[in-house]
Amino acid sequence: DDVRLLSLTGQGGIGKTRLAERVLHDLSGAFPDGVCFVRLEDVVDAGELVARIARETATTLRGRAAAIDQLCSALRERQMLVVLDNVEQLADVAPAVLDPLLTACPRLKLLATSRVRLGLAAEHVLPLEGLPCPEREDADRIEAFDAPRLFVAAARRVEPALLAAAEATAIVDICRQVEGLPLALELAAAWTRVLSCEAIAVELREGIELLRASDATHPARHASIELVFEQSWRRLAPAEREALASLSVFQGGFSAEAARAVAGTPLPVLGALADKSLLRKDGARLSLHPLVQQLAAARLDPAARNEARRAHAEYFHHLLVQRWADIQRGDRAALLAVDAELENCRLAWQWLIVQGEGDAVRQCGRALQFHFDHRGRFEEGLALMRQALDAPTLRDDVMLQTWLLSEAAQLEYRLDRYAQATAMARQILATKVPAHERRVVQRAHNVLGACALRQGQYPDARRHFRQALDMATSGGDAANLAATLDHLALAEKHLGHYDEALRLSLESLAQHRRIGDSASVALCLCNLGSLYMAREEFDTALPVLREALAICDRDGLTGTLPFVLGNLSELTIDRGGVDVAQAYAERAAEVSRASGNRSIATWMTLQLARLAQRRGEYAVARDLLADGTKESVTLGMPFAHGIALLVFAELLRALGDAAAADRVLGFAVDQPSIGDVTRSGLITVRRRWGLPERSALGWPGLRLDEVLERIVAETPLEHAPLRVLLNTELPGTAPAA
Length: 737
What we know:
Layout: E1 5-9, H1 16-27, E2 35-39, H2 46-56, H3 67-75, E3 80-85, H4 94-104, E4 108-114, E5 123-127, H5 146-158, H6 168-177, H7 182-189, H8 197-206, H9 225-234, H10 238-247, H11 256-263, H12 267-275, E6 280-282, E7 285-287, H13 290-297, H14 302-328, H15 332-340, H16 342-354, H17 358-374, H18 378-389, H19 398-414, H20 418-429, H21 438-454, H22 458-475, H23 478-494, H24 498-515, H25 518-534, H26 538-555, H27 561-572, H28 578-595, H29 598-614, H30 618-635, H31 638-654, H32 658-669, H33 675-688, H34 704-713, H35 720-726
Parallel strand pairs: 1-4, 1-5, 2-3, 3-4
Antiparallel strand pairs: 6-7
Helix pairs in contact: 3-4, 5-7, 6-8, 10-12, 11-14, 14-15, 14-16, 14-17, 16-17, 17-18, 17-19, 18-19, 19-20, 19-21, 20-21, 21-22, 21-23, 22-23, 23-24, 23-25, 24-25, 25-26, 25-27, 26-27, 27-28, 27-29, 28-29, 29-30, 29-31, 30-31, 30-34, 31-32, 31-33, 32-33
């Protein structure tokens, strides 16, 4: 009731007029004296504005009194709604007409559509954005979102045979590229008479040539996106034009501080651009619509663009250098700051590479590598490192190339591509590296140790970690020293040296806490909790893992999170119930798949198979077992082979094949490659089943690879042939049950 003037604002083509027309229709019965729609696109001054309102409200203007006074007098007692459509070109003169009307006519309400905020004291502003767009993973339900529904409806006017479901992914792409702008959706949809939706999406990535009307469906002012933008551009002051063009260098939005530093744009100019619907605010950030950005960028001459890109790269280089220590420690605020500016950081990175700024590339790279690692975005981090490795401008900087290779090797390891990571690390060790670059060599040893650990080569892992520890100790780098102690603790644990592993792990944790490195504290707690589980100190492990989970959730440490969740699932399967373990396992699987961490995803697939078997869902358990076993063989993960055999044995026992289960579990215990930790867990299960550490039954001569292959291949047969073989009495053994 207290709103007298509401301005629907937004860029051209956003749908202001259509929304106003709908409001007029829906509210027509609420105003005793009616409603009226006043079109103003061709009105240019206050006199014409008064005359047009008078005409549409059936008011006759005559006599010597001022026209505005006559209009106010005629409308004084009316209770009505007046829509003023396309007021932007009248923004400077509108107050002289609308203020008197609102003052003199207390029962009159005005609804204005404008690209520009009018600036009246009584004005309430409702900025309009594009229609809701689906995410890429929502392609199977695009009908639930307005943007694709509008696109499909417009497309079917020219291409009735369009199968939206068949082209859903491309339709989502189109909608997201134009951010749901209705005019752009309709203009693009018109091309479905000639092109597939996928081809339209490709064309839009190349430019906006398609966003022009090819018929008379749209009014002249909406004939193309360029024309719509040109109408707004003409209304900008020179300083506003210069600012808008310079702001086009940003990607993914920007802060007011960045706008001042990079584009030299003061707050009043930012405010003016926002008032004219060319700049939008989302929380503390500002952004341009991608089509506005593209069209504004075209107005930037090459020299100005080069200067803007240079200033942009310098600003975000400084930001990464300033925050890198906090990023390394996993500081929540620092990680969130990079999250917000990630697209700008990528753009700055590319500029620095093209310019051959090797030192700056390394400074930015170390911050970005830690960010991507903490966030579990390994492929993205690797893509950046490869950009720099492949750049001709940086090819002659041997030490930079070696450093980039070490960072790429770490990310390859995180993606479970052990052969690639190992080859890169060995290439580094074969390079003559000066003493002051010993951290690069240390990283190579850590990568080699980590790869060996995953592949069950535990003595090799310990050897590489000890070499890395020697280098960290002599280098005096407390963070590297603490991290390497944690790595070495893992190797000692898998070799069955639990006391030594505990000593190293506790020392590492204490050092990380002293440094204040929360990301490393979380990882160290995760590894310590796993060690306590191996020592069967389960009550001690639980609070340690819960603390690690709390840190990961607080700071968004996606790289460490699935390890913690996986350990909690293993810990709670016999102590917290199947439902609790299932929740941990499902979340771990989801996070690890999203980050590309195949080793954890494989582990959790096998864990989910165990849980399905516990619930009596044997068909589900068999399918999950097959998936996890196949992936463990592909990755070459001996510890996962042991888990696969455990799941198979548990499934056999649940189905009544106790002797076969005994044989499989005994066979697993005897495999040297699975490591002492996995073996200890298998022995614990045998003890829980009332069996000795080693099976007294014979084994039918199958190799490990043959068993794993048959577990996968015989899934459709419910493993019947393998079960028959495992239940066959062997010479010198007791009859199989």
